Amino acid sequence: MKAVLMIAPGSPDVLQLHDVPLPQIQQERQILVRLKAAGVNPIDTKLRQRGTFYPEQMPAILGCDGAGVVEAIGSGVQQFRVGDAVYFCHGGLGGHPGNYAEYAIVDERFAAPKPGSIDFAAAAAAPLVLITAWEALYDRGRLEAGRKVLIHAGAGGVGHVAIQLAKLAGATVCTTVSTPEKANFVRQLGADHVILYRETDPIQAVLDWTNGEGVDLTFDTIGGKVLSQSFAQTAVYGDVVTILAPDPQTDWKTARDRNLRVSYELMLTPMLKGMMQAQIDQAKILRQCTRLIDQKELVIHISQTFPLAEAAAAHRSIETGSTMGKLVLLTES
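Request: output the structure for the sequence above.
Response:
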């Protein structure tokens, strides 16, 4: 089969299309998926730049997100049959092969039925960002109806689904974006208040919007100085959830003075730690999102698609930081 191999850490040019052996089912609950599309996420570019979590296993196939059709099943498979359409977040961290390929092996318990109302490209774009936003808002942030939520980078991959999930929970949503085009995009998703952070002080804008109190929950998808800003934008006794590691300049004093509850969200932890039940629980999130997508309550925005052979171009595009929604590799023409 064709697969994009990361031959060494480095620039996007280290991603090269090769012929590799077709993966084989090794366990009774595994399924062989003929991939139609693979999502491209920032974690892919970071692993390509610095090396994977398993540097001794090179070359590697990146790509955590996949969608396709079940081609073969193990002897103990219970949930799927050959021909079923599925989507999932599994592999791509340097250990288990990822989805920049024509085929992938995945435990059936980590997959979910693909939403019937969207194509394979949109399905492949969805799993990592859906699970990340769901866990951040509902599990870490304990979001409830009536709360005010700030979502940084609302036009991004995680941000654009987080806005929708927050609105579905009954929250009032404020979000930050960089351009008027992105402002129009997030308003269409349901954002109640939009801050163009290049044109105004984002901290003061949030305080003005909340009568000086700050929001109940801030979801930081950017990191760096934005995490420190998040503390100043959040109400006393509020919640801040971040998907990035703090840097040495993080303003922890403000977080302490405001008595904030700070949480981390890394949806890859169950895969990295081999936590079977946690990975099953994440697939259950995808099943709930399948229902929401098919009921037209949740949309996945695709900014651009690329052929599998142009994975390097997809990486260059996502590294500009200017895309709206998601980028996807099409594994079939």
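The mean pLDDT is 96.
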